[in-house]
Amino acid sequence: MPEDRDWEAYKVPPTRTPVSETTSSVPNPVVFFQTVFNYVVDAPVTFVREWIERQQAKNKFYYYHQKFRRVPDLSECLEGDYLCFFEAEAQWRRDRMVDQEIVEIIRERLGACKQREGPNQFQNCAKEMEQLAQVTKAYQDRYGDLGVHGNARTCLMKQKHRMMEERKAQANASQ
């Protein structure tokens, strides 16, 4: 560093900072308004908000774990009860979405097992393969051949026809 400093450009700060004394007979209006605002507006609002937060903390509601009550099946609805028909249709759609997710989860587990095991996948992933076969067969039996526009009524009729065919095949086998 150079020895010849420019003392005018880099002044040394004073060793003691003087304290400004404001001795006025009139109070500062800013301090007055801040105090009034804190006591009149901020304190009650803060109190109410904290009280509401305490009440909400007692009753935690997790919106992502919504549970719907089971409604009567379409076969249990009375004739002309359109509200029951609507609720049964909504319940059927939720059940179908849950069943689709179950199939997808089992399929992902099988894929992960195949990836993990490599060439030994046929031996070590047999349980997952069997589980996927059972789940897809159950899904196909219930929702297969309904198409995109399938609904609870067509699904119920499909199950009814399948049950009638099983009874007919059972009766023919016993003869």
UniProtKB/TrEMBL annotation:
The keyword Mitochondrion applies. One of its GO terms (cellular component) is respiratory chain complex I. It is a peripheral membrane protein. It is found in: Mitochondrion inner membrane. Signal peptide: none annotated. Keywords: Electron transport, Membrane, Mitochondrion, Mitochondrion inner membrane, Respiratory chain, Transport. Accessory subunit that is involved in the functional assembly of the mitochondrial respiratory chain complex I. Complex I has an NADH dehydrogenase activity with ubiquinone as an immediate electron acceptor and mediates the transfer of electrons from NADH to the respiratory chain. Belongs to the complex I NDUFB10 subunit family. This is NADH dehydrogenase [ubiquinone] 1 beta subcomplex subunit 10. The gene is Ndufb10.
